[in-house]
């Protein structure tokens, strides 16, 4: 009987521990998810629809259009409070307020938590994450290096390689080709390393990169980064560390065999540390090809949907480039091409949200005083689809960019704003112009009737909040020599 009593008491104690643990966990989650009292004056996007969106893997662009912007319109505000990355964040939905925020001298980039494996991959000592004097130095170095390497000839060669793979046409998974094209462009010209993504799409390094990004982008761990403390993913950490180690080996090869690339120019700067070399190389590799790949997939998709726009653009390209290889000065005379690229990047903004900012003192943001220590960001997707800023933002209309007098150029924020604007802006734009203009001379294309993107473009989930069109297939037909440039 005593043994039975002791067993019951022991079981009861274990049950107590379990219940107390669950209660502590529930209390912790409650405290994490409730709106802090000092932020309740800011219009707050309802939490549970957001959580459902996050955990379902809905992409940032669709969440903004479905939840954030309608809420902001209903509440007549351009500043909202959103639960994001495991914390409450003030998001700005209007470009001019965003510019004031990003250029405020008391505002700095927020140090991101160690929990997210994303930061374990890209590091913190790079032009993307750094601030203050480190950022000024790295930004200057990056801009100087990129100015010395705008390799239109490389883009031209890679475009021809892409066409050799497409051949006479047929159905092509275009989003896959843009990923491979931009990966080789960044690898060759920025890293000084040929990843052979076009020639060997299933090559070891390319495959491992996609495996790493897929593993990191678990919706639950992106929404609640603290899960990495509670339920650490040791196998994913090992995968990330192994990828970074192999990337460092590529950098060492580049140090021993310098060339005309961005990393070689960076190595010539005496003030940079080994960690800075590594972090800048990795973040440039990732950000430099994913964003442009998404932009290229978006533009070709819209040209497939709107045959009249495709035909008009082909005529402009034919008149300006003729049969010549692309040159930088060609694109001074292609206003329609430039307008289409800008409209594509407005409609499906490659990077949707800026890196969060923070201040040690209260900051006025729009009509609200934001307390010190609060995360703040410009939501660029929302800024590009804000009806108070853009006329009919849900319509794809390149003509809106043809008359600069009718549009405020400061409202287009695809590459960011102010001095923190993406240093690779021109690199990306030339990369896009070359491939699209050459593609127009070689092919006509349409969207398949059974395309899942028939009604609207669908992006995949991204841990970086990027707009990456998911499995976009296009039907290509090669243009016969001397063919007239008419709509299909």
Automatic annotation (TrEMBL):
Molecular function as annotated in GO: heme binding; iron ion binding; monooxygenase activity; oxidoreductase activity, acting on paired donors, with incorporation or reduction of molecular oxygen
Domain of life of the organism encoding this protein: Eukaryota
Keywords from the named record: Heme, Iron, Membrane, Metal-binding, Monooxygenase, Oxidoreductase, Transmembrane, Transmembrane helix
Keyword Transmembrane: yes
Required cofactor names: heme
Coiled coil: none
InterPro entries: Cyt_P450, Cyt_P450_CS, Cyt_P450_E_grp-I, Cyt_P450_sf, Cytochrome_P450_monoxygenase
Chain sites annotated for binding heme: 422
Regions that span the bilayer: 12-33
Pathway entry: Secondary metabolite biosynthesis
Record-stated family: Belongs to the cytochrome P450 family.
Protein name from the UniProt record: Cytochrome P450
Organism: Dichomitus squalens
Lineage of source species: Eukaryota, Fungi, Dikarya, Basidiomycota, Agaricomycotina
